[in-house]
Each structure stands twice: as structure tokens, then as C-alpha cells.
């Protein structure tokens, strides 16, 4: 009985696109949408310097093995790497391993930062906070402005 109630309250997520714009992922993050994972498939040093807030490090050569042991195959997964080729390779590897909802984050970390997406890491920590970091009204204005940005 309880499962039916939950099924009716939480709508089924539409399938994600094979490639996703940074705006789509940022909107999901900001509005607290459930059940998705962001994977950073770059090398560990690049990840430590800066990455999307909450992204999991899984270098390309280990991504399938590590994802298989820690992520449900039906979960929405957004992948980004050092370039589009690395992102595409990792996404394809995950799809081949049976992950159903895998999407490349177009433009990777650069596109994410261009629209003011939150980041963390040793180099990112040196970047001064944006006006939206402390003020909800500013954050909403920033959100509206970045929705119209082309990346």
C-alpha cells in the first residue's frame, strides 16, 4: 500500500537526453530533483583542483568498474571529462555496461562555470564567491540571468 502512495506522489522521471546542456543539470540541482549522479571522468589531479559541486571522481579507465559497484543502473547519470571525446567515451562505456540513463554534460566544467554552477576544489576555493552565494534574492536573479546564457 505504501509503495503505491509513493509511486503516485513522486512522478516518473522522463528519460534524460544522450547529451545535456549545463542549464538542465543546474536546474535539477537547484530545485532538489532526486536520483541523479554527476561523474567527473578526468584524472584525479584535475578533479582535486576543481569540479562540479557533488560530482563523484571516476577516471575514464575505472568508470565502469566503479560505477557498477556503487550506482544503480537505472539512476540518471551525467558525465563530463576533460573534453567532449573523453565524456562521450565514458558515457558510451557506461551505456554498454547496462546503465540506462547516461548523458554527456555538453561543455563540461567550462560550460558549468560559465552559467555560475557551484564548484569545489583547491583552485575553485580561491575564486571569490558570487553574489548569489549568500543571498537568496541574488541567487534567483543569477539563476534567471544564466538561463538565457548561451554556452
UniProtKB/TrEMBL annotation:
<dbReference type="InterPro" id="IPR036873">
    <property type="entry name" value="Rhodanese-like_dom_sf"/>
</dbReference>
<feature type="domain" description="Rhodanese">
    <location>
        <begin position="32"/>
        <end position="121"/>
    </location>
</feature>
<dbReference type="Pfam" id="PF00581">
    <property type="entry name" value="Rhodanese"/>
</dbReference>
<dbReference type="InterPro" id="IPR050229">
    <property type="entry name" value="GlpE_sulfurtransferase"/>
</dbReference>
<dbReference type="InterPro" id="IPR001763">
    <property type="entry name" value="Rhodanese-like_dom"/>
</dbReference>
<protein>
    <submittedName>
        <fullName>Rhodanese domain-containing protein</fullName>
    </submittedName>
</protein>
Amino acid at each position: 500500500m505504501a509503495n503505491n502512495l509513493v509511486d503516485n506522489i513522486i512522478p516518473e522521471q522522463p528519460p534524460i537526453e544522450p547529451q545535456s546542456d549545463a542549464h538542465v543539470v543546474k536546474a535539477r540541482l537547484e530545485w532538489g530533483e532526486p536520483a541523479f549522479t554527476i561523474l567527473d571522468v578526468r584524472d584525479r589531479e584535475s578533479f582535486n583542483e576543481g569540479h562540479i559541486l557533488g560530482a563523484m571522481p571516476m577516471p575514464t579507465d575505472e568508470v565502469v568498474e566503479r560505477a557498477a559497484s556503487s550506482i544503480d543502473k537505472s539512476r540518471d547519470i551525467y558525465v563530463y571529462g576533460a573534453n567532449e571525446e573523453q565524456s562521450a567515451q565514458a558515457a558510451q562505456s557506461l551505456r554498454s555496461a547496462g546503465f540506462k540513463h547516461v548523458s554527456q554534460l555538453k561543455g563540461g566544467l567550462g560550460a558549468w562555470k560559465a552559467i555560475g554552477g557551484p564548484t569545489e576544489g583547491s583552485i575553485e576555493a580561491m575564486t571569490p564567491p558570487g553574489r548569489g552565494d549568500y543571498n537568496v534574492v541574488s541567487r534567483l536573479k543569477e539563476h534567471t540571468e544564466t538561463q538565457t546564457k548561451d554556452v
